[in-house]
Amino acid sequence: MSAKHIVTHKEKKVVFGNFISLTSLQSINYILPLVVLPYLIRIIGMEKFGLIAFAQSLVQYFLIVTDYGFSLSATRTISLIGEHKQKTNELFSSVMTVKLIFSSISFLILCGLIFFIPKFKADWLVYILSFGSVIGSTLFPVWFFQGKEKMNYIAVVNVISGLVYAVCIFIFINSPEDFLLVPFLNSLFSVTSGIFGLYIAFKKFRLEFIFQKYDSIKRELKTGWDIFISILSINAYTTTRIFAVGLLTNNVITGYYSLAEKIANYIQTFPLDSFTRAVFPRISNVFLKNKQRATAIMYRIQDGITLGFVISLPIAYLIAPWIIKLACGTAYQEVVLTLRLLLAAVFFVGANNFKVQFLLVCGKQDLYAKIHIGAALIGLPLIFLLIYHFSYMGAALATILTEAGVFIVTSIAVEKLARKFSGR
Question: pLDDT digit string (tens) for 36-50?
């Protein structure tokens, strides 16, 4: 098949529609912080901002547990089920049951941390209020809409929620004493979005919740296990960076680093994340019919993504002070330096993004898991070691080294698979 006809017009139309929906959502998620962040930092100060960032990094672990890899495993399964109503209801019910159970367990763990560890006990209300985002994430069936390739529902709910949240920030947060309203409002709108997302799923797709037997739940746990371990491993050397900076330094430095990482993540994921989410269910279907064609699509997409980063990252490096000033109100030198370091890691992630997802498309969850477990085993101690010696810059250096290693190993693994599918 010629390169011109690798992707059909119909496939382009479906993927493009989902891409636009998700990009509109991400656009709001990008624009709103540019408006809200300078205001928040000026009103509540860098110390309280750093505390909130630290609490969010802790809550992120619970988000990982409750997701359990369903954002990939269940998305792929639901896309392959098609319109089979009974199987759809069973999968939906099993996934939601597991997520609700894990959410309850996560809250109990959080309560234990607050009760037994002084660092968490001192600001216990910040952590409790931040936990609402876990509940919202549990309720909102993003994985279901992605699998059905109906991302417009995700976009509509989250855009409205994000806009109202931003307005509330400006209305209700007027002094440093109002800082607790930041996690409260974030959780409130997260839960509200989750409830609306569930309502749309039941209403539009006529879903029925069926109490599942243990065997059905066990099957979904087994299906998502490798991906869960992989995502847990990935976050062991990603989410842990802010958490480790918070443990080993102070709230002000944590605020500096979290700002740099937040902006680096924006550059890394926009609009790349929208595109890969839109393509994932479609290429999974293509792979079932034609492995060579799916491989050709993967390489074509990855080459385009890599070229985009080759062009954009040097520009981002040069205008980093302006980006920081726009996002934070002041061009903090600590944030500028950290952001410039993190851009190197952003390149490795971008140049590897679709290759990593292709391992899941191929059903190589075990290989996907092994790569990221290895990265966690090396990256996690590296984070603490380099932060201990170089403070917040150590977190950025650890990120570069770890992501470079993941890039090299994944590229080798995917090339071997491509040769196998082509018969070379």
Answer: 888 898 899 999 999
